[in-house]
Specification:
Elements: E1 2-6, H1 13-22, E2 26-31, H2 34-43, E3 46-49, H3 55-63, E4 67-70, H4 80-101, E5 106-113, H5 135-145, E6 152-159, E7 162-164, H6 170-182, E8 185-188, E9 194-199, H7 200-213, E10 218-221, E11 225-229, H8 230-241, E12 245-248, H9 257-260, H10 269-275, H11 284-287
Helix pairs in contact: 1-7, 3-4, 4-5, 6-8
Length: 293
């Protein structure tokens, strides 16, 4: 399959491109810069210059493909306004891609977050959250999944708050960055909140499986670790960086503070059964041992 990929040089995107190429697919990938274009060419992908704000470029990429994986999302998490801009841009990009694919029955796989359900593991059957700092992503993905009757084989791979690789990435990576800036490895409240996690290489496999075989209108969970306690995550970060570990108020964590404070374990049982996904990479706490002091 000839696949158009956005966000192709990110923490998730790079392994997705490698996974696709290793399984006989060809890749046309959005490249925001010359450096990204060179990186894509070096692994055997064809770059398409542009950004997710270039809707005509996105339509062209989708028109030239047999399937699309949309991963691009802004990297500025400095404020609620910055996150809102990224959510809005992602929504417009997915709308443009969906419009181009309507009536073709070609797959469009996008990314969203695992939901949180008080008192239990969330499952693939639970609706995506549509409120909070990134609630707009849930609304956008719901609109995509509703296009099954219009000839778009849309599916969503729901990612946990931490997608990691060599100790970097996701909410755990943001905790690490915050610890380096503030001199303390912090967790909110009593730290018993549970965060699900997945290794980026395992997530990449799931994106390929969804592209190849996920039915229209379905959501899947890329969850390898159902829920590590945040204080355990902070403890590994503190030990690796040589910093004290302590509780801090929600405001300490910036715009994502309210999400950090949630207990949000998630299951992937239906995904493993339905798509035959089997994570094989190290779990989060083991992978965080790769952090450099």
């Amino acid at each position: 399959m000839h696949v158009f990929v956005t966000g192709a040089t990110g923490t998730i995107g790079s392994p997705v491109v490698a996974e696709l190429l290793a399984h006989g697919h060809t890749v046309l990938a959005l490249a925001r810069s010359d450096a990204s274009a060179r990186a894509l060419e070096s692994v055997g992908a064809e770059p398409l210059r542009g950004s997710t704000a270039d809707l005509d470029v996105l339509r062209d990429g989708a028109a030239r493909s047999e399937g699309v994986i949309s991963l691009a999302f802004g990297s500025d998490y400095s404020s609620g306004e910055a996150v809102a801009r990224s959510v809005e841009e992602e929504g417009a990009a997915l709308a443009a891609l969906s419009e181009e694919l309507q009536g073709s029955d070609r797959p469009l796989v996008t990314v969203s977050g695992t939901p949180w359900v008080p008192g239990r593991l969330s499952t693939e059957a639970d609706p995506a959250p549509t409120d909070g700092p990134v609630g707009g992503r849930g609304r956008t993905v719901a609109a995509l999944l509703a296009l099954a009757s219009q000839g778009v084989r849309g599916s969503a791979v729901r990612m946990p708050r931490t997608v990691h690789h060599r100790g970097q990435g996701g909410f755990a990576g943001l905790l690490t960055d915050l610890a380096r800036r503030t001199g303390v490895s912090a967790y909110p409240g009593d730290g018993t909140q549970r965060w699900p996690a997945v290794h980026a290489l395992d997530a990449a496999v799931l994106f390929r499986l969804a592209l190849e075989s996920a039915p229209a209108g379905t959501a899947w969970h890329a969850v390898a670790d159902e829920g590590d306690q945040v204080r355990d995550i902070a403890a590994v970060i503190g030990r690796r960086l040589g910093l004290p570990v302590a509780s801090r108020p929600v405001e300490h964590f910036g715009p994502f503070g309210p999400i950090y404070a949630l207990d949000q374990p998630a299951s992937s049982a239906a995904t493993r059964e339905g798509l035959g996904w089997r994570p094989t990479q190290p779990g989060l706490l083991e992978d965080l041992e790769n952090l450099a002091p």
